[in-house]
Specification:
single chain; 138 residues; mainly beta; Jelly Rolls; 2 domains; four-stranded antiparallel sheet; 13 strands
């Protein structure tokens, strides 16, 4: 997500946002560097859709990040699960929220949340397990 600067004396619309003269904006959208009045000042911060990436090997509670690496609130995100070993049960938001999602060895499961519906997960297993979990910003 490169940083661009408006080097004109006029306001410019970039990615549906108004950029004042001499102001900078971080934008995931690529702009032609030959665009008159728009100067690429940095390749950073780079776009990174990953909010969280962890390996879970013990029963635990996992909080879903509320903000991305730039401090922006995240309302749309996807949860990705892969079980490398064992079997796991996953409850969304509360352990009384039954039935839990039950995943077995080599299971893959994804869910897209288009609004902030899941804030935390409870991961449990009766035996040894290895779960890979990723939260992706949409």
């Amino acid at each position: 997500m490169p940083t661009y600067k408006n080097i004109t004396t006029l306001k410019k619309m970039i990615n549906n946002r108004v950029v004042e003269p001499n102001a900078e904006i971080c934008s995931p959208v690529y702009y032609n560097e030959n665009d008159v009045g728009l100067l690429k000042t940095s390749d950073f911060p780079s776009h990174n859709p990953v909010l969280c990436s962890i390996k879970v090997t013990e029963n635990k509670e996992i909080m879903i990040p509320e903000k991305d690496n730039l401090g922006n609130l995240v309302g749309k995100y996807a949860l990705h699960f892969y079980v490398a070993e064992g079997e796991v049960m996953i409850w969304f938001n509360n352990q009384k929220n039954s039935p839990p999602l039950q995943l077995y060895k080599t299971a893959r499961w994804n869910i897209r949340c288009f609004e902030r519906t899941i804030d935390k997960l409870f991961v449990e297993s009766e035996g040894k397990f290895k779960l890979y979990f990723i939260v992706e910003k949409l």
